[in-house]
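Researcher: Here's a chain I'd like modeled. Treat it as a single chain, no partners, no ligands.
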Amino acid sequence: MSILVITGTGTGVGKTMITAAIAALAVDGGQRVAVVKPAQTGVGTHEPGDLDEVARLAGKITSRELRRYPEPLAPDTAATRAGLPQVRPGEAAAVVADLASDHDLVLVEGAGGLLVRFDDTGGTLADVAWALNALVLVVAEAGLGTLNVTALTAEVLLRRGVECAGVLIGRWPERPDLASRCNLVDLPEAAGAPLLGVLPDGAGLLDAVEFLGVARAALSPWLGGAFDPDLFADRYTASREE
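Model: Modeled as a single isolated chain. Structure tokens:
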């Protein structure tokens, strides 16, 4: 588990918060942690990006951002429009492998979904994961519509020979609707992998100490937390037939 690739089923699903939660627990456990963002889009040159947020919440990490593009677009399009070099999957994999040589855990956070293009040859985060033979975590939405995109993401990973280690919900609503509650049971089936965590929406508004406590409750023991998917699901699915 020295390298974990974190993808989402789309944008705004909570990838950065899940990345921060995993990093926070690992740092608290005494691990040397690096976090890599191959492509940061929609952020200006001197503005804080996703890695700054991870560092704020997780503490002492090594962070590497390979490319930054100002427009909130797919990395290949954003690079072309900005006249900047594109990210190549081989380059990203080499950086991650180098960091893995002197860190206990390297987290690789994607941009958008799994098949968002990094470059004009069609390179994606899936290619980075394949090159590294790394496990992939899929961050999904809680509500209606999430099962299809989660299943599609898992199928692509399977076809490419990349293992999906688990699915996580990155933004669990304070008042989950029926679809969200049912998806606690249905998402692992769609992903073909266990539910490894459910992070409450708004966790990023906490300070680092509060965030660590939330992360511990929200993530599986496999990731250093205390989350029990069966107990969590039982709390919300008793009224599944309503």
